[in-house]
Amino acid sequence: MTYLSPLAYLLGIEGVALLRGIREGGADRAFVEARLTEIRALLDLPALDEEAEVITATHGTISTADVYRDWAPTYDEPGNGMIEIEQPLVRQILDGLPVGTALDAACGTGRHGAYLAELGHRVIGVDQSAEMLALAAVRLPDADLIQADLAAIPLPDDSVDTVVCGLALAHVPDLGPVLAEFARVLRPGGHLVISDAHLLLSYLRPTLPRRPGPDGRPSILTEYHRPLSAYLAAALPLGFQVRHCAEPGRPPSPTASGPLPTEMSWDLLRWCPEAASAAHDDAPVVVIWHFQLEVSGGSTSRAS
Ligand SMILES: C[S@@+](CC[C@H](N)C(=O)[O-])C[C@H]1O[C@@H](n2cnc3c(N)ncnc32)[C@H](O)[C@@H]1O
């Protein structure tokens, strides 16, 4: 059970702002005093201290399938800050890869698959969500779309040249079996491009509860945010070599103004925009990996 208090979340953001400022040098006297004044004010605000809605939520009663069933119709709408940061960097890697057969693993609505098709690849999409795949079918009429789990991809060994897996591995409890499937379906020398929500983001913007969850009570989707070493520990023994790794951050941007909420929402940051900026600006949002599978019997020395 997690006890989610808007006041506690904002005090956490103030704390991150102070710790970052101390670590990175932005915490001059005026900044520190402003944070302390704001913390006192937040603690004394009746709207937050007494009236803000506190939720007790259970982890894991809602499933990934439940979430994407609800999210599918609006997933592609503009305004997804993570996609805005991730997409140009993933495309930059895809632009440099040889054209062939590409698997969009956990393709969702086919965002990366559509780009791969534009580049001339034959595209296969795999996803466990029927609702997301139905939208991918509209966007990718010529692709083979398969409903399956990433840990059991129904494709032959050595059958694809590129695997791209966008913003999905945080849903997977164990990276090992999934990366083993990517290695199995890739031809020797094939390329694997992964993007995933960054561990740090999961602290700054913890997953919000769904209300109601499937059993009528608030529920938080269980997610698996990982340190970079976890990807390496899973990928390197399979013969993947690192070609590139990036951790793009959120560019500095003012916190949007608007009515001050008192329920759990990212809009809570409007209560303390300076601390929100100090905590979030340039903090990594996603991690992006480009791996290449070794050619059997020897290491791959260059992207080809
Ligand atoms: C955030 S969406 C990303 C969709 C797409 N890759 C993109 O970047 O726009 C995550 C997708 O992963 C899929 N997914 C999560 N766990 C999965 C699993 N174990 N096997 C197959 N698909 C999975 C979900 O159904 C969802 O479509």
Automatic annotation (TrEMBL):
InterPro entries: Methyltransf_11, Methyltransf_Superfamily, SAM-dependent_MTases_sf
SUPFAM superfamilies assigned to the protein according to its UniProt record, in alphabetical order: S-adenosyl-L-methionine-dependent methyltransferases
GO molecular-function terms, A-Z: S-adenosylmethionine-dependent methyltransferase activity
CDD domains assigned to the protein according to its UniProt record, in alphabetical order: AdoMet_MTases (cd02440)
Residue intervals of the Methyltransferase type domain: 103-194
Protein name: Methyltransferase type 11 domain-containing protein
Protein species of origin: Catellatospora bangladeshensis
